[in-house]
Amino acid sequence: MPTRATARKGCGEGPGRYPRLVFSPQGPSLRELCVQAFSSVERGYDLLAPKFDHTPFRTPDSYLGATADALSDLGPFDQGLDVCCGTGAGMAVLRSVCRGGITGVDFSAGMLAQARSAHPDATWVQADARALPFTENFNLAVSFGALGHFLPTERPALFEGIHRALRPGGLFALPVGAPPPLTSVAHWATLGFDLTMRVRNALWRPPFVMYYRTSPLPALRDDLMAAGFTVTTVALTVLGSRRDGSPRCRLIVARKPTDPH
């Protein structure tokens, strides 16, 4: 299960993908997952952090590699930021395309402790992604799998904070998967998961915000443009295509204009 609020990691969602229900033997037990699911998002991720990289919620290396390859054609960049960094998987992407320092921000102290151990040369900041403490510090920002932890009404604050954190001309890159076909198992699995989470949050406090079906590409594009970005997409063709030939995953490339007017 996955996160939310001081720079949340949307690890359970993956970058627009859907969960593979396969756990490593080193991963959490069913009991541990249940305890996490009935905790707050922050507390849940603190508990899960030591075993997180052994769960299907970690962003796959294939998605990280595809994102890095696409960004290499748009860079190089200087300072890089991973928003909702979790245990730091996205640092490999930033390190491959950034010439300067790299920074991860997350609200879970437990996840940051794991990230700091794995990447001691990076800078780590504990903060709420809806109120990022940066102003024009970075040339590139990325985020992997975090969107499910933000309600649609919270996305404007998230995107405005990322816009503020970037220097003029800076990029925000976000992989987003195509919705699964109506006839697929993934469609009904994610629908059932979201309904279950809505019932859980209606009956249990604190809430655990994690939804798979609240971030369609058109809505993300509208919210990013409202925050001041110009938005394009890049097909990550290496990740495959759907039956209709459309890409399974696209990289949203949101640029902060060099001219504020």
From TrEMBL:
Instruction: Please provide the record's keywords in A-Z order.
Output: Methyltransferase, Transferase
Q: Name one GO molecular function term.
A: methyltransferase activity
Q: Give any single GO term for biological process.
A: methylation
| One Pfam family from the record | Methyltransf_25
Query: Which ranges carry the Methyltransferase domain?
Result: 81-170
Question: From what superkingdom does this record's organism come?
Answer: Bacteria
Q: Does the keyword Methyltransferase apply?
A: yes
PANTHER family assigned to the protein according to its UniProt record, in alphabetical order:
TRANS-ACONITATE 2-METHYLTRANSFERASE, TRANS-ACONITATE 2-METHYLTRANSFERASE-RELATED
Q: What is this protein called?
A: Methyltransferase domain-containing protein
